[in-house]
Task: inverse folding
């Protein structure tokens, strides 16, 4: 079917387009205007804004820890009678089904789950399979597993580490590699309560820095498009701005992605011993072109923090709101689920909110700063429209800031920042740059041959309203959203990489699992045929 | 050849599915119960429950909620069998039923083996509260035991002594409690192991309190053994599909969860539910309700019911007749299992898909 989106404002930074024009779609792809043919379907989008489908690079939407949070907090997601007939299980709040529906309604078409534990990988993929409409992907976690730490202790060559990383990505169907407080969860099992970049992991001797360097090297050796995705040490601790700066240094000019950086921008100055160090961190990011970051913006509301940084989560148990939490010492990382309520009246929460916005606004290059709330850690993804409004309107920021303790704003630079994001910059940050960062050549743009993942918005003075309910959304050329309502389900792909490796590693892992765990290494595999829908994966090429 | 019956007489699978669809569609409040099935079966069942505006429950729900209710009130602190096996220098077993709940427990945790991830590489200590005769099964390791008829008292006394608070008990008993408290406090990474039958929610909450206190100075975590018939896997699937555990109803057109209201046996015996789909693919369990209502049963061959179900389909065993995904107690995660004796006996999910087709649309 030939589809024409006629007369919209096309915002496509990859192809340097920002102007009124037509967009043609056929067989799920964007095509050149076909000479002499009539479209089968015309959508008059005069006065609307046309962008590629948005891509979220870091959102906790699936896996054991997310599901634990659902089960821990039934009171936070009671369902109501839907106002209109809804699609199957879309009335179930926080279900995988509702997740896909709500993302699609905002014009998102690809979302990455950033924490897939190798020993829980099947559940992660089962959950992703039940997220409708979206394409998905998952970042596989290593860095606290005995096998890797033992390789480092024994001083094994980078080749062995690369083989192990590749074998694990293959077994877990990961799109990239994540490391979370590298060595921290394991150290916590040896009763360590604070763990920094240069602390040594008991029993193994290796440091967080060395784990980070080794994994960075492996990603490079394997030519995986997405750089190592790092959840750094000392998350959430006053004064951790020094950790952020040291970690940027530790990247040594090589590609590194720093996740939810907002949580590492805290100084320890002022009467409260808590201040924003975001300006210094933003300056360091600006000076380090090898580094990309996502923000992890916090917003004022009840949420729940879900993290495989079990040490950090254990230390946060006392701040749980409501007062209950789960700590899971799993094989390697594990996780912690700690509910939390960010309050406008709370000094520290106000500083955190400002820190996130400072990062967004003080990092110059929209290709290197990514739009996340670290869903649901800073805020649920459903707050994205409000965050867009804060970035695009100085006035909206001033209004929100007026409600906060002014002493908190005084330990930040936020009131002095005038920048407002343009639509083009929003399109870079949420479309073009994420596709580039993940190596997804087929999306993030509206050029010929690209996937017809397209979001059409109705401009509105109320920016949150505009981004909250897309006018039209196409996934693979299929019109799935009209005026913010998902009309039907379709089932997307899970994106994965498949770097080659020396298969001797499989035999080695098989022996290791038999000896240590007393179970077969195969037990943790994700066989394609066990997932509910046929042909669930799409491979993303590693560079040659 | 698929074995299906309608009113006790042989029927084709399709005729059975059609009859099942009629019964479920006609009911005011149908229930999907038992749910002894793999992840695919659970997914199909929950989708069907929404379609027919029914409630769903699992045959082992009572055991699941013993642990889950504590979590939802107070939280939890848990680890994996792998960590217990490779790291724990102290194991705290609670109850005589552990090896009955999980016959492979001792083989899997290998208490007599030196834990490889423990810095000291020392022989482990095993403490067993109320072991009955089970402690005799442990070879190659001295077991410190304490007999107790009441786990609440034992756990409360231990928690008090770990926190250096006085307890009101006889000298001999106090000496024993003190000895065990010292072992727990001296652990580098301890793991407490319990089942959901001998411990009730109050005891488990006390135990988590003990673990929280121990973690102020050292590391200690928990390993609840959970329940059979893939209760753990169905719980997970229910969580991501509806946000809630089993005992959830779509009667009002959206998921509502209530452990009392949507208990399948209560719904039937109170007269609220008027048709049931009973699923038990792992074993020969039959419904525990007393009242007779129209029943569709997806069960292994030769299961005996007090009253013959209106529709019966003999289904294959997950991981036996067909490949499956299910919660594996031995690793504490959902894993894929290859069929050990592949056959063409239908899976629960395939039968439910057939039923759903007769209701209209796919499950």
Result:
């Amino acid at each position: 079917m030939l589809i024409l989106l006629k007369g919209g404002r096309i915002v496509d930074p990859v192809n340097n387009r920002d102007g009124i024009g037509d967009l043609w779609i056929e067989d799920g792809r964007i095509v050149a205007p076909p000479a002499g043919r009539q479209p089968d379907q015309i959508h008059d989008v005069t006065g609307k804004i046309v962008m590629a489908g948005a891509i979220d690079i870091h959102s906790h939407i699936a896996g054991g820890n997310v599901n634990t949070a659902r089960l821990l907090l039934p009171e936070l997601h009671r369902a109501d009678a839907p106002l209109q007939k809804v699609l199957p299980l879309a009335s179930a709040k926080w279900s995988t089904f509702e997740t896909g529906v709500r993302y699609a309604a905002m014009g998102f078409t690809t979302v990455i789950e950033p924490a897939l534990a190798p020993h829980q990988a099947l559940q992660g993929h089962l959950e992703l399979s039940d997220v409708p409409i979206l394409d998905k992907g998952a970042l596989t976690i290593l860095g606290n597993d005995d096998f890797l730490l033992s390789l480092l202790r024994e001083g094994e060559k980078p080749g062995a580490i690369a083989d192990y990383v590749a074998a694990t990505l293959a077994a877990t169907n990961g799109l990239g590699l994540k490391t979370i407080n590298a060595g921290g969860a394991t150290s916590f099992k040896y009763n360590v309560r604070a763990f920094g970049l240069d602390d040594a992991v008991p029993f193994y001797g290796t440091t967080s820095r060395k784990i980070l360097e080794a994994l960075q090297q492996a990603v490079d050796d394997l030519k995986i498009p997405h750089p190592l995705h790092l959840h750094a040490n000392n998350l959430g601790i006053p004064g951790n701005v020094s950790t952020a700066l040291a970690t940027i240094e530790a990247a040594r000019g090589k590609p590194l992605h720093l996740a939810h950086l907002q949580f590492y921008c805290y100084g320890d100055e002022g009467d409260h011993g808590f201040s924003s160090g975001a300006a210094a961190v933003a300056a360091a990011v600006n000076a380090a072109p090898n580094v990309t970051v996502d923000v992890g913006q916090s917003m004022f509301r009840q949420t729940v923090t879900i993290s495989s940084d079990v040490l950090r989560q254990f230390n946060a148990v006392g701040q749980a709101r409501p007062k209950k939490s789960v700590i899971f010492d799993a094989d390697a990382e594990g996780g912690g689920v700690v509910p939390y309520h960010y309050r406008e009246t709370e000094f520290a929460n106000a500083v955190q909110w400002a820190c996130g916005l400072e990062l967004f606004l003080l990092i110059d290059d929209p290709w290197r700063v990514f739009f996340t709330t670290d869903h649901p850690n800073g805020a649920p993804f459903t707050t994205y429209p409000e965050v867009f409004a804060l970035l695009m309107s100085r006035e909206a920021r001033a209004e929100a800031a007026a409600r906060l303790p002014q002493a908190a704003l005084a330990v930040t630079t936020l009131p002095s920042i005038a920048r407002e994001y343009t639509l083009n910059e929003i399109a870079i940050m949420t479309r073009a740059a994420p596709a580039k960062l993940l190596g997804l050549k087929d999306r993030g743009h509206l050029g010929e041959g690209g996937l017809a993942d397209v979001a059409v918005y109705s401009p509105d003075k109320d920016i949150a309203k505009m981004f909250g309910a897309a006018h039209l959304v196409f996934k693979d050329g299929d019109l799935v959203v009209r005026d913010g309502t998902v009309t039907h389900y379709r089932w997307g792909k899970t994106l994965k990489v498949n770097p080659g490796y020396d298969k001797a590693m499989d035999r080695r892992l098989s022996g290791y699992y038999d000896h240590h765990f007393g179970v077969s290494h195969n037990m943790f595999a994700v066989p394609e045929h066990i997932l509910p829908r046929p042909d669930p994966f799409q491979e993303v090429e590693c560079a040659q | 050849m698929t074995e299906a019956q309608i009113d006790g007489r042989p029927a084709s699978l399709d005729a059975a599915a059609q009859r099942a669809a009629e019964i479920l569609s006609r009911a005011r409040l149908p229930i999907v119960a038992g749910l002894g099935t793999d992840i695919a079966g659970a997914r199909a069942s929950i989708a069907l429950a929404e379609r027919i505006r029914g409630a769903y429950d699992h045959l082992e729900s009572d055991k699941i909620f013993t642990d889950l209710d504590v979590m939802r009130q107070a939280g939890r602190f848990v680890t994996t069998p792998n960590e217990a096996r490779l790291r724990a220098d102290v194991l705290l077993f609670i109850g005589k039923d552990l090896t009955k709940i999980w016959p492979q427990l001792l083989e899997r945790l290998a208490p007599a083996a030196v834990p490889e991830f423990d810095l000291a590489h020392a022989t482990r200590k095993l403490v067993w509260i109320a072991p009955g005769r089970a402690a005799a099964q442990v070879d190659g390791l001295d077991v410190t035991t304490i007999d107790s008829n009441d786990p609440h008292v034992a756990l409360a006394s231990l928690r008090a002594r770990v926190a250096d608070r006085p307890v009101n008990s006889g000298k001999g008993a106090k000496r024993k409690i003190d000895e065990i408290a010292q072992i727990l406090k001296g652990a580098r990474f301890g793991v407490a192991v319990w089942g959901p039958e001998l411990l009730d929610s109050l005891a488990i909450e006390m135990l988590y309190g003990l673990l929280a206190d121990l973690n102020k100075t050292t590391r200690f975590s928990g390993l609840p053994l959970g329940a059979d018939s893939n209760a753990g896997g169905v719980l997970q699937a229910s969580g991501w599909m509806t946000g809630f555990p089993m005992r959830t109803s779509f009667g009002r057109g959206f998921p509502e969860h209530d452990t009392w209201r949507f208990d399948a046996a209560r719904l039937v015996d109170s007269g609220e539910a008027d048709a049931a789909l009973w699923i038990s693919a792992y074993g020969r369990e039959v419904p525990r309700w007393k009242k007779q209502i129209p029943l569709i049963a997806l069960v292994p061959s030769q299961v005996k019911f007090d009253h013959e179900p209106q529709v019966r389909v003999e289904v294959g065993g997950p991981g036996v007749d067909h490949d499956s995904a299910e919660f594996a107690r031995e690793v504490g995660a959902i894993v894929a299992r290859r069929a050990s004796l592949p056959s063409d006996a239908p899976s629960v999910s395939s039968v439910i898909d057939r039923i759903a087709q007769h209701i209209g649309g796919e499950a």
In short: DSSP finds twelve helices and 17 strands in chain B.
